[in-house]
Structures are given as structure tokens and as C-alpha cells.
Amino acid sequence: MSYTKNLKTLQVFNLLNNFRLTRLKCQKRMSTATKKETINEQEASTEETTHFGFQTVKESEKVQKVHKVFEDVAKSYDLMNDVMSVGIHRIWKDIFLERLGPCHGTRLLDMAGGTGDIAFRYIKYLANIPNPKNRQSHVTISDINQHMLDVGQERAKDLKYIAQSLPQMSVEWKCEDAEKLTFPDNSFNAYTIAFGIRNCTHIDRVLSEAYRVLQPGGRFMCLEFSHLTNDVLQWLYDQYSFQVIPPMGQILAGQWDPYQYLVESIRKFPQQEEFKKMISAVGFQMVRYENLSFGVTSIHSGFKL
């Protein structure tokens, strides 16, 4: 009788002890989960912020938001540029290519060049100058947005800028992040980026990567919307930008928000002298800039020496 009673007492004790151990394990797991959640919240709250137009967003959000903007406007990108520049962007790009002055044998990386505007001008430019030594030239058109590249490749087919029609030119289309290029060091002797760098989260990283992939003697060139040198003209430009461009985007392309962002992004981009210092800071030399249309856009240039 006593043995049976003691056995039952022991069984109850073991049951209670197992329950206690199970509860402690659960509490420990809950505590660990809570700590992880707290750490994640702290990491989220301490994540660096940046601008998306006039909004302040987390850096991780900006990449997604910019990607969405250009995904939405890919098919109407030329129209967007026409609206934003009253068609003058075509002249600016012609001047940009003339300032680059490529020769046969050039290996060009055109970043943020999805729709091919700069690359096609490059191809046409070289086609119009003699090539007595039959030197082979190259252009890599790169963009972070595959939709933009798809539009550019369709345009290339329409213009006959394909391998069969370009015996002295090789063309490559590649989806790349300007801040983390996969190209080896010293791969190109010219790097262009037109109306794209202001959409990048870390401009300094873009510039560092441009410097890395250029060969010694290679040239960096950037065409970007900038800041007017005259206060009255700047005021007039602001009125046009904020009062006309977004409504026109809605009317012509059914898109208001992307145009609103693009206008705001121009105002957040560094002024000419500040951007010049950023280019110099990563190692480029002989850095200079040229204002076009009173500073509505500017061409910045530097050499890797």
C-alpha cells in the first residue's frame, strides 16, 4: 500500500517537473523570439534613410520605388523626356555625344541606358567617321530595370542596330546595378550615364564603380538635370516643373506620380559644384562641367589617370 502511494507521488512529481521544464523551454523560446523581434525592429528603425523625391524613405524602399517608376514609364520613356524637356533632350544628348567624341576602338559602358538613346547615337557617330584600320568598337548598354532594356532592344531591332548590320561594332545588353557592377576592373575606356544617376541611392558608390571599371586614361561622362544659374529662370522653371509636367504626364501617358517624382528628384540632386567635388573624391582628375540651357542640364566629365 505504502509502495503504491509512493509510486503515485513520484509519478505526480515527474509530471509536474516535466510541465515546469516544458514551460521554461516555452518561456525561453518566447524570450528569444521577442529579442529577435526587438533586434529586427531596432535594425529597421536604425536603417539609413534617403530621399525619394521629396519623401524620406528607407534606403531599401527607394530601390523598389525607383524600379516601379521606370517599370511604369518604360514604354513611354521618350514621351516622358519630351514632356520634361519640351523635346530639347534630343539636342542635349547630341551635344553630350559630341563632347565624348568617341573614336573607333572605343569600349563604352552606357549605364542607365536602357532605351538606347546614348548607345544609338554612339553607333551612329562612329558609323559616320572613317575607320581605315577596321577597328572593332563595343558598347554595353546596361540598366537596373529589365523593362527598360526590353524597350531598348526592340528599338534596336527597328533601327537595324543588330549584329548582322554592325560588322565593326559589338553590342551587349546587360541588367546591372550601377552601385554593384559585375564587370572586371579596367573593362572599358568610356563610361556614360545620362539622366540616371540622380535616381541611384548612393551616388558615391556609382562613381566609385565607374572609376573601377574604367581603364587608365578612360573617361567618365554624366548628363543630368541640374540647377539653373539665374534665380528668375529657376523660379520660372520650377513653375513649369511642378505645375505643368505632372498634369501633362497624366494627360499624355496616364501617369502622374512618376512625373511628380522625377521633377522632385531633380531638385534633390546636388548642385554642379558639389557634384564635381563628388566625382573628384573617388579619384577622377581633370573634372569639369558644362551647363546646357542655362543649367537646366549639365555635362560632368572626368578622367581616370
TrEMBL record:
Pathway: Cofactor biosynthesis; ubiquinone biosynthesis
Molecular function terms from GO: 2-methoxy-6-polyprenyl-1,4-benzoquinol methyltransferase activity
Main location group: mitochondrion
Entry-linked Gene3D superfamilies: Vaccinia Virus protein VP39 (3.40.50.150)
InterPro entries: SAM-dependent_MTases_sf, UbiE/COQ5_MeTrFase, UbiE/COQ5_MeTrFase_CS
Subcellular location per the Swiss-Prot or TrEMBL entry: Mitochondrion inner membrane
Its EC number(s): 2.1.1.201
Domain of life: Eukaryota
One Gene Ontology cellular component: extrinsic component of mitochondrial inner membrane
Nucleotide-binding is among the record's keywords: no
Catalysed reaction equations from the record: a 2-methoxy-6-(all-trans-polyprenyl)benzene-1,4-diol + S-adenosyl-L-methionine = a 5-methoxy-2-methyl-3-(all-trans-polyprenyl)benzene-1,4-diol + S-adenosyl-L-homocysteine + H(+)
HAMAP family: MenG_UbiE_methyltr
Family from the record: Belongs to the class I-like SAM-binding methyltransferase superfamily. MenG/UbiE family.
Annotated function: Methyltransferase required for the conversion of 2-polyprenyl-6-methoxy-1,4-benzoquinol (DDMQH2) to 2-polyprenyl-3-methyl-6-methoxy-1,4-benzoquinol (DMQH2).
Name of the protein in its database record: 2-methoxy-6-polyprenyl-1,4-benzoquinol methylase, mitochondrial
Organism: Glossina morsitans morsitans
